[in-house]
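Students often ask why we bother encoding 3D structure as a string. The short answer is that it lets us treat folding as translation between two languages. Here is a chain of 109 residues written in the first language.
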Amino acid sequence: MIAHFIERPKVGGCIECARQGEFNVVKMTQEDRDYFKNGVKTLCGTELVFAIRVIEDKDFIKIVDSKDLEFMKHELGRQAGAIWAKLLRALKKHDFKEAEKILTGGTGE
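And here it is in the second language, the structure alphabet:
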């Protein structure tokens, strides 16, 4: 999902272009924002950490509009809160399988 926003050279330039200082700032359309918002809701804890690392990359920050970056941070923060709440509920019940599923997306089996 994140690659959808990173690999769009025809719109705003690629990461390599940003490193060389030759890029246009990418602005998200409403369709992009909806796609991102819906996609973030499906992230597990591990994927969320990766997504946060991607949007905090100094080269990524250079090619994304600041308002769009704030939007992405806000949506990822909301998902972080939801994951934290689910994790706390699972741990309170001593349901460690569920806690692992929340963090890894169920891929730990």
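Translate back mentally: The chain has one domain: 3-17+29-104. Keep this in mind for the problem set.
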